[in-house]
């Protein structure tokens, strides 16, 4: 029988062949008019989506409205350029976009482009005028920071007032940051120097708030001048790429169009993610957002940068920060990347609305730290095994590279040699990867049987099965998951849950239950369009995952057997919070037999709830999360400097309080495996890496609770 990986590869090849034939047929035209690149691109993309997407849309008025709504949102995300009269003009096209793409025209794109170009020129003169005068930060007024709560200005007078508040807000933030920096320098003792204290003092004079305000306005002016110069340099290809990607995104969040240069950046991000700060980033609604942190990276070790953070400004060591708000991702990355050993300072907005400057010394990630690692935990006379799995990695070229399933198998063998009485498999922040490894990994804990079902838009589902009757580990098992556990992580967690093989614990997972393939449009289009190439690539959703119980992992994710709160519980993260996600559905279940020695979930859950309710660290975390939710929902910000700084200080005090309680929490007795330390011998670098792996886990209250659940089951 063919392997699942081979089957999926053959499916992709078949789709491409159909794509080529359909595209060739589409462009055998009878008229003499030479097709333009934008017409060919949009039609080819839509043909590919119609042929290959899991859930193709009808090109009708509903499709038109989806494209209109999403493009308008991205065209002016902060509602700062277009007037209500402009939007009313554009709204005339909301049911006509389907007709435009069919006839190969783009009136909506042309008009919206003309409008934004003109408004950009108007606003450039406007912000320069506003920033030529000082702001008064003692007056009582506020600014709305949430785009969804904003409205387009009724006229130019209202637009000017919106921009005045917006620019005042931007200036106030920078003044506040300058005050913080000055306070830090003032508190620092003078370094040993040949210069007299009086001379050293005069080299950095204390600046008044008024002087800071002048400097802050200069910085804001420079930022907007740079941003607007970029906006005005966008060419037809840039606008077409944004429009094409918007159309693709209306099918589902993971279907995307890559312009040729964006595909190069995508490839670089995939191959170069282990360099620099070690964070994967995404551009969403005009913001640079941290998608995840690479285990073992500089960001991971520094500890303050978190998934969900919004990067506002980037500074090289002690240099002046550069605002990246509104930048394209590829441009922002050029500032964030850098040589090993150099420092970058990121000003980020946290999920609760507070801002923080995070210094990170760039480094090259040690690849070994991104692989599965294990440790032992001694708790109450019991020895528990712990395995951290950062991702479902595999060598898809089959060149003898590492396999996550094989590595976990080896770690389980080592833990059994240590005579552990239970195992915690940590899938938190694991975004997925190799489907085949997820199937093989499930097989380490169960007898042979189905693990996951994969279904395209047509035909019956394929059942991917563990055919090995051997069980590598049969003892008590807890899988830790959170909102950032996705794709292959959800497949493994769902299989363990459906078989009742172990306890899934944490918070509901991300909900990504789809498979994507990338098709090169140049390969799909016939040679008669060679003079218009390159066209870029299309990444589209071709299949969907289903649990063996028949339910999809899409949209809903996997709901844990035991819910344990974490600091990310309040974030609007997950598939269901994205634009136009595919919905949950179900198919016929596969035939499988549950584990004979199933854990007593109800009893374990009841005991866990009681512990969590009386644990000071969990109680403080819950209080902190509630405050974060309140601050997150309260999107009106005072433009009175004293009130703004008081709110920022309050957020910092609450954050510091939580960190202090975490530090005071009882430490887990977790240590690297003796066999691993012996293998590292006298290599101090390797030994330090092993210690670095377990250090953040000592005060991990969720891991501590997982260990308690294992102890209850033993």
UniProtKB/TrEMBL annotation:
Biased composition (Low complexity): 191-203
Classification via Pfam families: DUF3340, PDZ, Peptidase_S41, TSP_NTD
GO cellular component: outer membrane-bounded periplasmic space
GO molecular function, one term: endopeptidase activity
Keyword Nucleotide-binding: no
Origin superkingdom: Bacteria
Alphabetical list of PROSITE patterns matching this protein: PDZ
An example Gene Ontology biological process: signal transduction
InterPro entries in UniProt: ClpP/crotonase-like_dom_sf, PDZ, PDZ_sf, Peptidase_S41A, Tail-specific_protease, Tail_Prtase_C, TSP_N
Residue ranges of every copy of the PDZ domain listed in the record: 265-337
Region (Disordered): 183-204
Keywords: Hydrolase, Protease, Serine protease
PANTHER family recorded: CARBOXYL-TERMINAL-PROCESSING PEPTIDASE 3, CHLOROPLASTIC, TAIL-SPECIFIC PROTEASE
Family classification: Belongs to the peptidase S41A family.
Protein name in UniProt: Tail-specific protease
């Amino acid at each position: 029988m063919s392997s699942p990986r081979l089957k999926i590869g053959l499916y992709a090849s078949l789709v491409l062949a159909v794509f080529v034939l359909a595209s060739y047929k589409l462009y055998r035209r009878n008229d003499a008019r030479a097709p333009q690149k934008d017409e060919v691109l949009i039609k080819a993309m839509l043909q590919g989506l119609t042929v290959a997407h899991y859930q193709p849309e009808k090109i009708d008025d509903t499709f038109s409205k989806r494209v209109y709504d999403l493009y308008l949102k991205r065209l002016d995300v902060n509602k700062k350029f277009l007037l209500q009269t402009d939007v009313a003009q554009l709204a005339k096209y909301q049911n006509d976009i389907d007709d435009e793409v069919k006839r190969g025209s783009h009136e909506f794109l042309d008009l919206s482009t003309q409008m934004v170009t003109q408004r950009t020129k108007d606003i450039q003169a406007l912000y320069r005028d506003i920033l030529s005068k000082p702001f008064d930060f003692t007056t009582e007024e506020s600014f709305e920071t949430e785009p969804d709560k904003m409205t387009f200005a009724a006229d130019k007078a209202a637009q000017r007032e919106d921009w005045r508040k917006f620019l005042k807000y931007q200036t106030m933030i920078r003044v506040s940051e300058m005050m913080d920096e000055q306070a830090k320098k003032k508190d620092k003792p003078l370094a040993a120097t040949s210069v007299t204290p009086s001379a050293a003092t005069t080299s950095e004079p204390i600046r008044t708030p008024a002087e800071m305000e002048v400097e802050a306005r200069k910085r804001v002016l420079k930022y907007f001048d740079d941003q607007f110069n970029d906006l005005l340099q966008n060419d037809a290809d840039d606008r077409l790429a944004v429009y094409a990607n918007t159309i693709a995104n209306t099918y589902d969040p993971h279907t995307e169009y890559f312009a040729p240069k964006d595909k190069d950046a995508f490839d670089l991000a995939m191959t170069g993610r282990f360099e620099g700060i070690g964070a994967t980033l995404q551009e969403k609604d005009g913001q640079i957002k941290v998608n995840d942190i690479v285990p073992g990276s500089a960001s991971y070790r520094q500890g303050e940068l978190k998934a969900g953070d919004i990067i506002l400004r980037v500074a090289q060591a002690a240099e002046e920060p550069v605002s990246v708000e509104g930048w394209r991702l590829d441009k922002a990355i050029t500032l964030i990347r850098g040589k090993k050993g150099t420092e970058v300072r990121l000003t980020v907005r946290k999920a609760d609305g507070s801002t923080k400057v995070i210094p990170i010394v760039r480094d090259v990630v040690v690849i070994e730290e991104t692989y599965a690692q294990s440790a032992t935990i001694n708790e109450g006379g019991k020895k528990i095994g712990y395995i951290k799995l950062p991702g479902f990695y595999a060598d898809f070229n089959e060149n003898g590279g590492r396999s996550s399933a094989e590595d976990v198998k080896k770690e389980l063998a080592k833990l059994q040699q240590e005579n552990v009485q239970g195992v915690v498999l940590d899938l938190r922040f694991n975004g997925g990867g190799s489907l085949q490894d997820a199937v093989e990994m499930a097989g380490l804990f169960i007898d042979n049987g189905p693990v996951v079902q994969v279904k395209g838009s047509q035909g019956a589902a394929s059942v991917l099965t563990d055919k090995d009757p051997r069980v590598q580990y049969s003892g008590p098992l807890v899988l830790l998951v959170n909102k950032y556990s996705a794709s292959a992580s959800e497949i493994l967690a769902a299989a363990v849950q459906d078989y009742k093989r172990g306890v899934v614990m944490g918070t509901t997972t991300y909900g990504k239950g789809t498979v994507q393939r990338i098709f090169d449009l140049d390969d799909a289009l016939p040679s008669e369009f060679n003079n218009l190439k390159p066209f870029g690539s299309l990444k589209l959703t071709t299949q969907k995952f289903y649990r063996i119980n028949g339910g999809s992992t899409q949209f809903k994710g996997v709901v844990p057997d035991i819910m344990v709160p974490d600091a990310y519980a309040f974030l609007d993260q997950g598939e269901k919070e994205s634009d136009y996600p595919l919905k949950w559905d179900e198919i016929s279940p596969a035939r499988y037999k549950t584990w004979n020695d199933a854990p007593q979930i109800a009893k374990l859950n009841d005991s866990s709830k009681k512990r969590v309710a009386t644990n000071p660290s969990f109680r403080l975390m819950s209080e902190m999360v509630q405050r974060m939710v309140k601050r997150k929902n309260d999107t009106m910000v005072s433009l009175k400097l004293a009130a703004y700084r008081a709110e920022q200080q309050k957020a910092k005090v609450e954050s510091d309080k939580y960190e202090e309680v975490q530090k005071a929490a009882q430490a887990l007795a977790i240590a690297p495996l003796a066999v691993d330390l012996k293998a590292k011998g006298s290599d101090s670098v390797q030994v330090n890496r092993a210690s670095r792996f377990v250090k953040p886990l000592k005060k991990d209250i969720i891991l501590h609770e997982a260990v308690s659940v294992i102890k209850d089951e033993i």
